[in-house]
Amino acid sequence: MGNFPILTAVTFLPLAGALLIMLVQTATGKSGDDAERGRQSLMAGLIFSAATFLASLVMLVSFEVDAPGYQLVEEVSWFAGVQYKLGIDGMSLLLILLTTLLTPISLIASFGSVKERVTEYTIAFLVLETFMIGVFCALDMVLFYVFFEAGLIPMFIIIGVWGGAERIYASFKFFLYTLLGSLFMLAAIVFMYMQAGTSDITQLANYAFAPEVQTWLWLAFFASFAVKLPMWPVHTWLPDAHVQAPTAGSVILAGILLKMGGYGFLRFSLPMFPDASQFFQPMMFALSVIAIVYASLVAFRQTDMKKLIAYSSVAHMGFVTLGIFSFTEVGVQGAIFQMISHGLISGALFLIVGVVYDRTHTREIAAYGGLVNKMPVYAAIFMLFSMANVGLPGTSGFVGEILTMTGTFQASTWAAAGAALGVIFSAVYMLTLYRRTVFGEVTNPALETIQDVTLKELITLVPLLIGTVLLGIMPNIIFDVTRETSLRALQMITGG
Amino acid sequence: MLPDIALLFIVLAPGLAALIAGLFQKYVTDTGAMVITTGTVGLAGILSVIQLFMYAFGGGVAEAVHTAAPAAGEHGAAMVAPIQHIITLMTWMDVGQFQADWAIRVDAMSIVMMAVITGVSGLVHLYSWGYMSEDPHRARFFAYLSLFTFMMLMLVTADNFIQLFFGWEGVGLASYLLIGFWYTRDAPNAAAIKAFVTNRVGDFGLALGIMAVFVVFGSVEFEPVLTAIRENATVTPLALAEAAPIHDLVIPFLAWNVPALEVMGVLLFIGAMGKSAQFFLHVWLPDAMEGPTPVSALIHAATMVTAGVYLVCLVSPIYEYAPFAAGMVTLIGAVTALYAATVGMAQNDIKRVIAYSTCSQLGYMFFAAGVGAYQAAMFHLFTHAFFKALLFLGAGSVIHGMHHEQDMRRMGGVAKFMPLTYAAMMIGTIAIIGLGIPHTSLGFAGFFSKDAILETAFAAGEAGVTFGMMAFIFGIVAALLTSFYSWRLIYMTFHGPREDSIPPETPEFDSHADEHLSVDEHGHHHHDEDPHESPLVMLIPLGLLSLGAIFAGFLFYDPMVGHDQGAFWAGAIYTATDNTLLADKYNVPGWVFWAPLFVTVTGFLIATFTYLFNRGFGAKIAASGGPLHSLFANKWYFDEIYNATFVKATYWLGGFFWKTGDKRIIDGLGPDGVTSLVRWGSRRLSAMHTGYLYHYAFVIIGAALVFGAVIFWRVGGAG
Fold first, then answer.
1. Beta-bridge mates of residue A77
2. Maximum CA pair distance of chain A?
3. Residue B563's pLDDT is what?
4. Distance from first CA to last CA of chain A, Å, rounded?
5. Among A385, A254, A364, A394, residue whose Cα is nearest residue A315
6. What is the torsional sign of CA B85, B89, B92, B98?
7. Which residues make beta-bridge pairs with B91?
8. For B249, what's the count of Cα atoms within 13 Å in the CB-facing half-sphere?
9. SS3 B436
10. How confident is the model at residue B441 (pLDDT cuts 50, 70, 90)?
11. In B, which residues are within 8 Å of A298 by CB distance?
12. Of A297, A406, A423, which has the smallest distance from its Cβ to B200's Cβ?
């Protein structure tokens, strides 16, 4: 590809699209039918995000699997020693691909389901996409922080404007939690910059902070990543945010935004603060296991489909932190895999809830039952993703869980046994949900005329379905890409 | 062994057939789906059975003997590396030392299992043409059956623990889908979830066991792991402990320091307990009878539930050097054998009687494996598959003929309407009670395998193996009960007058009848009509299984547990050099040979007295409501106890964590607390009626103070 700045292109293509849509819609003024104009915006947004996806495939082709370190690096001096520096390794690559895949899927799912201010909605999504991609390829700490924080705003707006009845409460809770976390991170970034004299992530990874300094820095980053992930006990914003967010917002939130926490631990905490990471391992294990067991039990009692899946997300992200802090190759590889896998599965589950929500406008589990009689294709897809969510072997859910637990077993049999309990509970809540919504007789008269999945919905679900099964059977296509990342993240800890 | 192409066909074709029948049922139609799945599995069945015969009688064993010659002798094969053939399909997971392939591994154990699985599955497919003929969802049903067959084959042909786990959970999925096949009804749905979740409790142990294996051996593949144990190699665990010979290696597990092999043995066995419905984790199996009867025959009798036994025998090297874990296997197996038999005596649903009987027979297999007679366990697994599938399909034939009646109290006198089914059930019964004459070759299949188990258990007891003698005694008593409940079933169902005038006792049965309306166009007015004999597609499987129930024991006694066993198993089952149980079983005291026959005849006489000559005597006992009968009829109150403890605790904890943990404590102290604090503060401020000016002033002063403090602190810090 020569010197073409592919990463910049991938990152800012959505933003360019957003600007273009804004300009065109402003220029054409208020003329024409609002709904029609909204549809056009959404279509334009879809085209741009699809183009971004294609561009990210170019990035994939340019990526050399076995090469060490970061690739496709672009470096421009910004201000005061801060650089505009982008680059990717295996983990970044996969998370960017996940982002560029889920964004167009979210936009497709929004056709017909979002009816108000569609142009602004599209713009918010495109802006969000740019920030998300930016987070995963920024190689400068300050740049990372800018993307990391900026991403909050469009998400805050998506929940606050296009959300459900209690969207204001939910969006504030979301904002408050994440902002609080990131303030500590900002302080830490400023401190690190002052001490190390650079904000370059690659250089910081080799900088040895004094152990007592590491502890504080680690905690500051932890505050931010733990909220994002989210870990127990700072997880309570997630169920509210999901319940209120529109379907597409939930897909992105669960699919991508949560992954920034895991990404952060691997990119910052482990390589930059190895001593502190080891010091806090027991705490991370404890919090992860609590998250898995606690959230699974809470999920079991939910009456709202989206809340149930949100709590299930909390539990599944617990496996990610377990794997990362097992400090084993198996565990870290499993954690990265689990992030990708959860992105596909939880994204799909929120889409699945969205399918029936669009038809009946309720997320109450009790309002459903007997869907299989009316929507057999829907029932089959839902079954597959339910099984993926409970970690059935042959789906991607299994691979992440077994590897993170195996890695954990090496470090703590207690933590592994606690996490394995989650495997039991996930079956309890997921099968109960499925039974109550899909099986049984149709009792709610509103469901008598419900339609099976449409072509549009199939287009959103089938790619995720293929991904889930493919990664379940051939997970090596991921492991080959992330091997270098995992080993490098562990280098400082396992002595390299 | 068959050529690779045939092996690939046997294992993979059922999966492909399931996909076609499941995904393209709209295009291939019901009949198309039935033809594809039945044809594929049937062909796989024929090939597998040919393979078994070729292996056992056609040179396979001879070849094995030849290869094993250097270490020949009665138990010489123990020291020989297993004879196996592995076809690697592709890499599954390759992460550091965690390497698992998709593979097809064929050895003596999997040859036996493949024959059982595809053989019974093929017959069940065929049988279902008749049994499910009126069901509107036949394509789905057959797709599930084939999916199950595929998963089960993947389980028994795995060359690593991870693929085994794939098959293990895959059969669990198929079982879940088939138990809940009639998904509009509540009972099957509840039973399906119960089965899946209970199995997951077992899988909790299995998964941890696999992790322990990986951490200790740095591998999840059978070959390196089992070889290391056989040879007592020095292993260097990835963590947890220093290098040591594996038999002596101690690792920390939770709060204990325990021998590594014991940890693995116990954890893997917990998995086996779940899948094979052993005591404590048995509660799902009787409920699983909500599924269509062919499913009960295939999954919940002949194949899936035996996966636990297969696992224990597969990892026999572990149990050979883990006496505590092996003792646990023996204990749980013996208790299950007896427990399930007591409950089986007091059930009135024909399928539940057979389900408890399955549970009990699995107990036999486990205690055989626990004392070290893995070969006897596998032999019983093999023969049991025939007669138990036969009994279930026979019961299904009765249910079909009686228009979906399952309560034996409402049957009676069926023999004259369904003579062929009656004959098949008689054969199954004689096989399961193990009727045969000691020291001769006269007997049905169960006679050979059950007596082999009892004799080895006695020999083990004599040799001082933990719980060996207890297992023998429990086994003998359970044999008495087996004979009793089996004949009780025959008499209540086939003999005496028809008793369809008795009204359904529980609403459960009412709902059965109603719910079947959706699948049975005729409705339950058919109850008033006479039973009818089943169609030929259902009778042919009964006939073929009858042959197995009669001859399987006689034919395979020598290869599996007799003088040729070392050559037959060819190292697939490992026994330590001091484990000579299979030879010792010839030398037990004479009465041990005769004891099973004695108790079997006794059970028969009691059943004949109470249920044939004095019909109504049994009902009187039931009606008297004695404590022992209540205990048995209510399955020792396991469901009630579990509901009051585990189910309730889960429900309560979930609510507590949600309402108190999340809402009150975390949100209360966190965001909501902050919000209300701000609100409270602003209300107090408003109450002062000082207007906006005050607010501004307050904010300005407050801000100034904060900034001042920060600057002061910064300056102070700098100074």
1. A83
2. 67
3. 86
4. 33
5. A254
6. positive
7. B101
8. 31
9. strand
10. confident
11. 654, 657-658, 661-662
12. A423
Helix/strand/coil for A131: helix
Residues B633/B347, Cβ–Cβ less than 8 Å:
yes
Rounded-to-integer distance, Cα B657 and Cα B554, Å: 59
Q: What is the 3-state secondary structure (H, E, C) of A375-425?
A: CHHHHHHHHHHHHHHCCCECEHHHHHHHHHHHHHHHHCHHHHHHHHHHHHH
DSSP code of B75?
A: T
Cα–Cα distance, B358 to B335 (Å, whole number)? 14
Please tell me the predicted confidence (pLDDT) of residue B73.
Answer: 43
Record: contact A420-B204, CB cut-off 8 A:
yes
Interface test with B, best of A326, A386, A431 (most B CBs within 10 A): A431
Closest CB from A393, A435, A474 relative to B165: A393
Q: Rounded to an integer, what distance in angstroms lies between the CA atom of residue A244 and that of residue A306?
A: 9
For residue A132 the two structure tokens come to: 């998300």
Q: Could you report the predicted ipTM of this complex, rounded to two decimals? A: 0.94
Please give the radius of gyration of chain A, using alpha carbons only, rounded to the nearest integer.
Answer: 22
Interface probe with A: pick from B88, B220, B251, B657, most Cβ of A within 10 Å: B657
Which H or E run contains B364? helix B350-371
Q: What is the pLDDT of residue A91?
A: 94
Measured CA to CA, the distance from residue A75 to residue A199 in angstroms comes to 13
CA dist B310 and B306 (Å) reads: 6
Task: Output DSSP code: residue A20.
Answer: H
Six-digit token string for B455: 């004799």
Tokens of A80: 């005061």
Cβ within 8 Å, pair B214-A298: no
- Angle at which helix A167-196 crosses helix A141-150, to 10 degrees, equals 170
Q: What is the mean pLDDT of residues B546-573?
A: 91
Q: In this complex, do B94 and A328 lie within 8 Å of one another by their Cβ atoms?
A: no
Residue B59: band (very low, low, confident or very high) from pLDDT cuts 50, 70, 90? low
Number of neighbouring beta carbons within 10 Å of residue B76: 16
Q: Judge whether residue A84 has pLDDT over 50.
A: yes
Residue B705 has pLDDT above 70, yes or no: no
Return the number of other C-beta atoms located less than 10 Å from residue A88's C-beta. Answer: 25
Indicate the pTM of the whole model. 0.92
- Closest to B94 (Cβ–Cβ): which among A402, A425, A479? A479
Whether B204 contacts B222, CB under 8 Å:
no
Contacts of A469 in chain B (CB under 8 A): none
For chain B, what's the residue count? 719
E-strand ranges in A132-237 read: none
**For chains A and B, what is the number of CB pairs under 8 angstroms?**
152
A183 touches chain B (CB under 8 A): no
A410 vs B170, B196, B238: nearest CB: B238
In DSSP notation, B128-196 reads: HHHHTTT-TTHHHHHHHHHHHHHHHHHHHT-SBHHHHHHHHHHHHHHHHHHHT-STTSHHHHHHHHHHH
Whose tokens are 């699948």? That residue is B519
- pLDDT averaged over every residue in chain A: 91
What DSSP letter does each residue of B619-637 carry, written as one string? HHHHHHT-HHHHHHHTGGG
Residue B245: CB atoms within 10 Å: 12
In chain B, what residues touch A382 (CB-CB under 8 Å)?
none
Asked if residue B478 lies in contact with residue B337, where contact means CB atoms within 8 angstroms, the answer is: yes
Q: Are A393 and B162 an interchain contact pair (Cβ–Cβ within 8 Å)?
A: yes
In the numeric block, the tokens 């050895």 are attached to: B107
Q: What confidence tens digit (pLDDT) does each residue in B138-183 have?
A: 999 999 999 999 999 999 999 999 999 999 999 999 999 999 999 9
For B53, B388, B546, the CA distances from B552, given in Å and listed in that order, are 11, 13, 10
What φ, ψ does residue A78 adopt, rounded to 5°?
Answer: -110, -80
